[in-house]
Amino acid sequence: MSRPSSFQAGAAAVTALKARLAAAGWLRATSGNVSVRLDDESLVITVSGTDKQVARDDDLLWLGPTGTIQSGTGRPSAETVIHQAVYAAVPEAGAVAHVHTVFNNLVGQHEDFVTVTDHEMLKALGHGDEGVSLSLPVLPNLADLNRLAGVVARRLDPAVPGILLRRHGLYAWGPDAAAVLRHVEAWEFLFEWVYYRDLARMPSCAAP
């Protein structure tokens, strides 16, 4: 299988996106993964188990449309099937990023959705109408990743560029790596805002 003409640009996009997410502290302890879909439906994706906070020459794999390794060393994340599920369900998705953060874990603990209404940051997610409400699906973190990929495909909303796995992390996507970075940054801002908003609503523990 020969590399498509979009390979070099795709590899550069993954590297740049990974660097920005790492700089934000969202790829700790070898966690997270990033992929870009190429013109022929193959993927460039980060290698599993590597420290993605460190720039390396061998930290990317090229996978064929069915997930077979075409070039690179190491192995792709078992979560590659989640990326593939997103690409299959959202035809316009050109890149996917997965990050683990404290705030995305906190806000996804108990609810089936994280809902934000009438917030300026929703514009960064493509929803700028006044009074708009956006609900991000929160899914169980199933150990069977093929089963989880099926749940992701059924539960995601193409109009909402993300899903959250409980006690795991966020998957966000967009037409290209720049859009994915914007979406991850917007979601993470909103997760922090939701956490503190809900904390402020809690009754005071102080004695009357």
Would you mind describing this structure in some detail?
The chain is of the alpha+beta class and 208 residues long. The protein has a single domain, classed as 3-Layer(aba) Sandwich (L-fuculose-1-phosphate Aldolase), CATH 3.40.225. 33% of the residues lie in helices and 21% in strands. It has 5 helices and 9 strands; from the N terminus they run αββββαβαββαββα. The protein has a 9-stranded mixed beta sheet, with helices on both faces. A hairpin with a 5-residue loop joins β3 and β4. α1 runs parallel beside α5. The longest helix has 25 residues. The chain starts with 6 loop residues before the first helix and ends in a 7-residue tail after the last helix.
Low-confidence stretches: none
The chain-level mean pLDDT equals: 92
Shape: globular
Order of helices and strands: HEEEEHEHEEHEEH
Classify the beta-strand content into a percent band: 15-25%
Assign the CATH topology. L-fuculose-1-phosphate Aldolase
Q: Write out the CATH superfamily name.
A: Class II aldolase/adducin N-terminal domain
CATH top level is Alpha Beta
Coarse structural class: alpha+beta
Quickly list its features.
208 residues; L-fuculose-1-phosphate Aldolase; nine-stranded mixed β-sheet; 33% helix
List the helices and strands and how they pair.
Elements: H1 7-23, E1 33-37, E2 43-46, E3 60-63, E4 69-71, H2 80-89, E5 95-99, H3 102-107, E6 113-117, E7 133-139, H4 145-155, E8 162-165, E9 169-174, H5 177-201
Parallel strand pairs: 7-8
Antiparallel strand pairs: 1-2, 1-5, 2-3, 3-4, 5-9, 6-7, 8-9
Helix pairs in contact: 1-5, 2-4
